[in-house]
């Protein structure tokens, strides 16, 4: 019986530790967000820095006709599973807004922000591995 249980556990471990298929897509994206559009204003900006991972790029937050939009351009990130974009009040993501899954490890990408959170409180944009609670990269937002 112990051999049978050990065999089942071994099979589960082998199949679950195979190649990760939930990694972020690596095909470059080029979102069509246009910061020159009428009614679009740059509110905050920052530079992404990798934390234990390779993440680089610029982050800009725009008010586009009453909708906040976070834009990564240019952008590059090391791949990983379950990468999300967070707008956070602190550097440890204790209080944050999840803007959605990272669209790609490279390219211009934009993320709509629900509501109109106070950007004096939400001071950081992060690339965060939600599955393992690991920070990949962070940008502190500042006035342009």
Coarse structural class: mainly beta
Distance between the termini: 66 Å
Total discrete domains? 1
Largest sheet: 9 strands, mixed
DSSP helical segment count: 1
Strand content: over 45%
Give the strand line-up of the largest sheet.
Answer: 1-7-4-3-2-9-8-5-6
Poorly predicted regions: 4-20
Secondary structure topology:
Elements: H1 2-16, E1 29-30, E2 40-50, E3 55-64, E4 67-77, E5 83-88, E6 96-101, E7 107-113, E8 124-129, E9 134-140
Parallel strand pairs: 1-7
Antiparallel strand pairs: 2-3, 2-9, 3-4, 4-7, 5-6, 5-8, 8-9
Overview of the structural elements:
By secondary structure, the protein is mainly β. The chain has one domain. Helix content is 10%, strand content 46%. Strands 1-7-4-3-2-9-8-5-6 form a 9-stranded mixed β-sheet, with no helix packed on it. The longest helix has 15 residues.
Summarize the structure.
The protein has 144 residues and is mainly beta. Helix content is 10%, strand content 46%. Mean pLDDT is 88; it is low at 4-20.
Which properties best describe this structure?
9 strands; mainly beta; 1 helix; 144 residues; single chain
């Amino acid at each position: 019986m112990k051999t049978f249980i050990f065999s089942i556990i071994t099979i589960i471990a082998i199949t679950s530790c195979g190649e990760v298929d939930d990694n972020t897509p690596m095909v470059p994206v080029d979102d069509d967000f246009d910061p020159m559009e009428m009614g679009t204003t740059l509110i905050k900006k920052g530079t992404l820095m990798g934390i234990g991972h390779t993440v680089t790029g610029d982050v800009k937050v725009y008010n586009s006709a009453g909708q906040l939009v976070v834009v990564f351009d240019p952008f590059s990130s090391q791949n990983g599973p379950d990468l999300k974009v967070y707008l956070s009040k602190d550097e440890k993501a204790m209080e944050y807004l999840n803007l959605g899954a990272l669209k790609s490890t490279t390219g211009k990408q934009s993320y709509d922000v629900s509501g109109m959170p106070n950007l004096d409180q939400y001071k950081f944009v992060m690339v965060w591995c939600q599955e393992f609670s690991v920070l990949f990269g962070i940008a502190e937002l500042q006035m342009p």
